[in-house]
Amino acid sequence: MRQGADKKVSANYKLTVQYDGTRYYGWEHQPNTDMTIQGKLEAVLGILEGEPVEVIGAGRTDAGVHARGMTANVRLQTKKKPEEIRDYLNQYLPEDILVSEVREAADGFHSRYNARGKTYRYTCYAGPAKPLFDRKYVYALEREPDLEAMRKAAGYLLGRHDFASFCGNPRMKKSTVREVDEIRIERRGDYLLLTYHGTGFLQYMVRILTGTLLEVGCGKRSPESMRELLEAKDRSLAGPTAPAKGLCLMKVDY
User: Fold this and answer.
1) Which of 29, 69, 125, 170 has the fewest CB atoms in 10 Å of its CB?
2) Which residues are catalytic?
3) Rounded to 5 degrees, what are φ and ψ at 53?
4) Distance CA 254, CA 29 (A)
5) Beta strand pairing call for 139-140 and 66-76
6) What is d(CA 103, CA 194) in angstroms, rounded to the nearest whole number?
């Protein structure tokens, strides 16, 4: 740890981050590219600190996925106040990344390990004409799905289950058991919103759940088939992975 008259003892800061993930390769560092959210934040904060820093995110959103409420934490030695750190970040970050809040956190706070739950929202467009101005943030459907059938199917997915059939990582070595306590499906004008809340989600899990529920809505599978999918623990039996652009991390619970 550096010492000096212009530096204070390092402190732990909690960041709330919003981003349009369209042109990024997800949150986490990727080889051979600097186009990640974590990388952009660390680059700016590294200049502020005068040395490399590590920004820890609450999760790993995939390439093309957006966030309205990603939480991160970072240790800094700057004398700047939290709101000054926020303003510094927003001055130098790309226009599609915004830090909405910076707060000093407890020394032991860890954005990933302390997270109790996450809320994701997947947005579909089911109107008569293609969505123009928000085309980068919604999945345009070819037909109107049966929402009641989808809600019935979602009911089978609630609770603590092995979601291996809905995991996009075939080499997953850790447990694929997760708890999902809410799947809310609602229509707002021409938009169909699927909101998921759970203790945690597997890679591509929300997008695979969405693709599978949409198949139910289009009559390609029955609501009751969700029970068979959970029991099978076989990704090849579930529906397609819905496009990344429709997914947004809304909030992380602590």
Assistant:
1) 170
2) 62
3) -130, 160
4) 24
5) unpaired
6) 31
Burial class (CB in 10 A: 0-12, 13-18, 19+), 151: middle
Total number of domains constituting the chain: 2
Q: What is residue 178's three-state secondary structure?
A: strand
Per-residue pLDDT of 162-193, as tens digits, reads 999 999 998 888 999 999 999 999 999 999 99
CATH number, residue 42: 3.30.70.580
Asked which of 105, 138, 162 is the last residue of a domain, the reply is 105
Of residues 193, 46, 27, the one with CA closest to residue 97: 27
Tokens of 247: 């997914």
- Residues 61 and 252 sit within 8 Å (Cβ to Cβ): no
If asked whether residues 81 and 160 sit together in one domain, one would say no
pTM metric for this prediction: 0.92
Q: Over the stretch 10-62, which tens digit does the pLDDT of each residue have? A: 999 999 999 999 999 999 999 889 999 999 999 999 999 999 999 999 999 99
Q: State how far the Cα of 46 lies from the Cα of 43, in Å rounded to an integer.
A: 5
Q: How many CB atoms lie within 10 A of CB 133?
A: 6
Structural domain harbouring 166:
117-253
